[in-house]
Automatic annotation (TrEMBL):
Database matches in InterPro entries: ABC-2_transporter-like (IPR010390)
Membrane-spanning ranges: 21-46, 66-86, 119-139, 145-170, 191-209, 238-260
Organism: Clostridium sartagoforme
Keyword set includes Transmembrane helix: yes
Taxonomic lineage of the native organism: Bacteria, Bacillati, Bacillota, Clostridia, Eubacteriales
Keywords tagged on the record: Membrane, Transmembrane, Transmembrane helix
Name of the protein this chain belongs to: ABC transporter permease
Pfam families tied to this protein: ABC2_membrane_6
């Protein structure tokens, strides 16, 4: 009961973000059209690559597996999207963070529940439909669907949400020192897109790059759950992958708390 009462003050932040996102129906349609075209371009790109390849298998992926990879990595990247770095930067710029820091609420927890509004929105608007279509295609291509694999995938996605949140939160805290975060945010997103396996499966990287990238938190957020869904991570490898995700959650959490204590002492409020 105490834990439920503890999170109750933060639930309005989740609800407000969800309602704000769902109210702009035109934006929803535009983004969905843009996402559809991006998926279409990616599909035809890989179709051309496989069409010109000597064999049917490239780096352990058949063409049908690559199609599933494209879909599941895409919806996974949307599902774990908890980009609150912009919100923190905006509050520092306009001075509203001064009021928010005075409130008897934990700032980190408040930003987390604010990010959950975005997660619930993506889950309802995109993930449910996208995941259903992808699973149907998986069954059509391979003739089976692993319920256990799906459950482990969902668990991995949840941990990916935490990884992505703390990664974004850490970058948001940097705005306490660097006022204009636009350029840094672009770099941050580019790094995530490349090293998470969202654009290109990490299996296509050189051997030395794979060894390094698989140990980083970026691959744990998207590549790990995607490979679990495809069944390319099995047995003890799953325990290692989930353990690595948990490891990065703890590490990023500790780093974020250290940065908060260090940066909050010298915060300069610009607006007000």
């Amino acid at each position: 009961m105490r834990e439920i009462k503890g999170i109750r003050p933060y639930l309005p932040f989740t609800r407000n973000v969800f309602q704000r996102l769902i109210s702009y129906k035109a934006n929803v349609i535009i983004f969905m059209i843009g996402d559809f075209f991006m998926l279409a371009v990616t599909y035809y790109l890989w179709k051309a690559i496989y069409g010109s390849a000597d064999g049917d298998i490239l780096n352990g992926f058949g063409f049908n597996e690559m199609i599933i990879y494209i879909f599941i990595s895409f919806i996974t990247s949307i599902m774990i999207s908890v980009d609150i770095s912009y919100d923190i930067s905006r509050e520092v710029k306009d001075g509203s963070i001064a009021i928010n820091l005075v409130r008897p609420l934990n700032y980190e927890r408040r930003m987390f529940f604010q990010g959950l509004g975005n997660v619930f929105y993506n889950f309802i608007v995109i993930f449910i439909g996208g995941f259903s279509i992808t699973t149907f295609l998986f069954y059509k291509f391979f003739g089976y669907v692993s319920l256990g694999g799906i459950l482990i995938y969902l668990l991995s996605v949840i941990m990916g949400i935490f990884i992505n949140f703390y990664y974004s939160y850490i970058f948001g805290l940097i705005s306490f020192k660097i006022t204009n975060m636009w350029g840094l945010s672009q770099i941050m997103q580019s790094v995530v897109n490349l090293l998470s396996g969202m654009l290109i499966p990490i299996a296509f990287f050189p051997g030395w790059a794979q060894a390094i990238t698989k140990l980083l938190p970026f691959s744990s957020s998207i590549y790990t759950p995607t490979m679990i869904y495809l069944g390319k991570i099995n047995g003890s490898e799953i325990l290692w992958a989930l353990g690595l995700q948990l490891f990065w959650i703890v590490i990023l959490m500790v780093v974020s708390k250290f940065m908060w204590k260090s940066l909050i002492k010298n915060l300069t409020i610009l607006g007000g």
